[in-house]
Amino acid sequence: MSKIETLKAHLEAELGPSVHALRLDRGELTLTVKAADYLVVARQLRDHPELKFEQLIDLCGVDYFSYKDMTWEGARFCVVSHLLSVSKNWRLRLKVFCPEDDLPSVASVTPVWNSANWFEREAFDLYGILFDGHDDLRRILTDYGFIGHPFRKDFPTSGHVEMRYDADQKRVIYQPVTIEPREITPRIIREDNYGGLH
User: Fold this and answer.
1) In CATH terms, is domain 3-142 a member of 3.30.450.20?
2) Inter-axis angle of helices 3-15 and 38-47, to 10 degrees?
3) 62: nearest Cα among 46, 90, 82
């Protein structure tokens, strides 16, 4: 049995009904759990002697709105974490979908892996995903007065407001976006021997 198959067997045995989906694809293992089980499973993944995922190395939000230019069936927002076990030398992708699209929310895993702190703040800032139990959930990349969550697929590409320095008022001001959308047609090169091809 390969190392990844061993990990898969341990996950199935130790997590049992908490496993919503467990998928092995392209040499990577993805575990999906329900939002209600997320924090409990995170603790088991860290503490169980057969699993020992000591490190959370990444956490991000995902917006499945119009996923692959198709209508997505299911919850819109997902939190994806990448875990590492140094002692066992294996990795795992952990996914949890937010039960509500209007107010996406899951438990914070900062009590389990404190490295999740800024990652969860980033997912909140860019996707609007709330993390219940996070001690300091506030924006981390956008400005304090920023409106909306820019990585959501329905966020306008030009944004809502822009800021600039006003010399008369001697301060930064906010105003509605003044960018006019335009369509640019790329120039087409029609040389017979372009690039040395004949």
Assistant:
1) no
2) 130
3) 82
List 59's β-bridge partners, or say none: 81
The model's pLDDT over 189-198, given as tens digits with 9 standing for 90+, comes to: 666 665 665 5
Residues 139, 47: Cα–Cα separation, whole Å: 31
pTM: 0.81
Q: Which residues pair with 171 in a beta bridge?
A: 166
Instruction: Using the structure block, give the residue that is written with the tokens 């995902």.
Output: 62
C-alpha dist (Å) from residue 100 to 46, 77, 159: 27, 8, 24
- 134-158 in b/e form (b: 16+ CB < 10 A) is beebeebeeeeebeebbbbeebeee
Q: Which residues contact 13 (CB under 8 A, 6 or more apart)?
A: 50
The pair of three-digit structure tokens given for residue 177, joined into one six-digit string: 């976006």
Q: What is the pLDDT of residues 149-190, one digit of tens each?
A: 999 998 887 776 777 899 999 998 888 877 676 677 766 666
Give the DSSP per-residue string, 82-118: EEEETTTTEEEEEEEE-S-SSS-EEE--TTT-TTHHH
Q: Are 98 and 106 in contact, with CB atoms under 8 Å apart?
A: yes
Q: Return the half-sphere exposure (C-beta side, CA atoms, 13 A cut-off) of residue 119.
A: 18
Cα–Cα dist 118/136, whole Å: 9
Domain residues of the chain, as ranges?
3-142
